[in-house]
Amino acid sequence: MIQQVRTVGMIGAVIAGQLLFVHGAIGMETKEGVYIAGLKPDQRPEDAPLITEASKDHAWYAKALTGISQPFPNSLRFLDDQGNWYTPFNRPGMTGRYDIRGWHQQTK
């Protein structure tokens, strides 16, 4: 019984500490001209770089289509619209029997 009370008390203290931390972070004010990431996640700094075009050369398509034989299915046309954002489709995934595209095969 005493152990349960201690555990509940510790959990309550941790939650209270986290709430105080979050409240303090939200209420932080910044000096003019200083950007601190995360305080206003809906806004980008005015001088942040802006990507206007994503260039995809032959090597990019070769990597993205690793392990897929021609003719390529129409469902892969999304690659034409793929920008510079993250996609798991053009990166190696799991190994072993789950490596159906052969990303992890060692050349002999």
Layout of secondary structure:
Layout: H1 2-26, H2 58-64, H3 78-81
Description:
This protein is an all-alpha fold and 108 residues long. The protein folds into 2 domains: 1-45, no CATH class; 58-98, no CATH class. Helices cover 33% and strands 0% of the residues. It has 3 helices and no strands. It is flat, with a radius of gyration of 24 Å.
Q: Give the assembly state of these chains.
A: single chain
Distance between termini? 63 Å
Q: Based on DSSP secondary structure assignment, what is the total number of beta strands?
A: 0
The H-and-E topology, N to C, reads as HHH
Summarize the structure.
The protein has three helices and no strands. The protein has helices spanning 2-26, 58-64, 78-81.
List keywords for this structure.
2 domains; 108 residues; mainly alpha
